[in-house]
Design a protein that fits this description.
four-stranded antiparallel β-sheet; 2 helices; 4 strands
């Protein structure tokens, strides 16, 4: 269990550093970064919530190259009418 916690913290730290140093976000623009151990592949990924979009969770891979691979609008965000076309932190494809 300690190893899993370490891996989750490692991925969260890698994504945080990527957002700050390569994507040039400021610390106060990031609400949370959390490593997740899922049941699907990949087993480990990171969920990021930005201050300007508290109702959107962005999912990042951090195994080799760090990349945003998905997002989801929370139920509360959907009730507020937030749509994909309004998202501000989508990675360029």
């Amino acid at each position: 269990m300690k190893l899993i916690k370490w891996i989750l913290a490692f991925f969260a730290d890698r994504v945080t550093n990527y957002l700050l140093n390569e994507q040039h976000y400021k610390k106060n623009e990031i609400k949370s970064v959390k490593g997740i151990w899922g049941v699907k592949l990949p087993a480990f990924y990171t969920v990021v919530v930005f201050e300007n979009e508290p109702y959107v969770e962005y999912l990042y891979f951090a195994h080799n190259k760090i990349m945003q691979f998905s997002h989801s609008v929370t139920e509360e965000g959907k009730q507020l009418g937030i749509t994909d076309s309004e998202l501000k932190n989508m990675a360029a494809k």
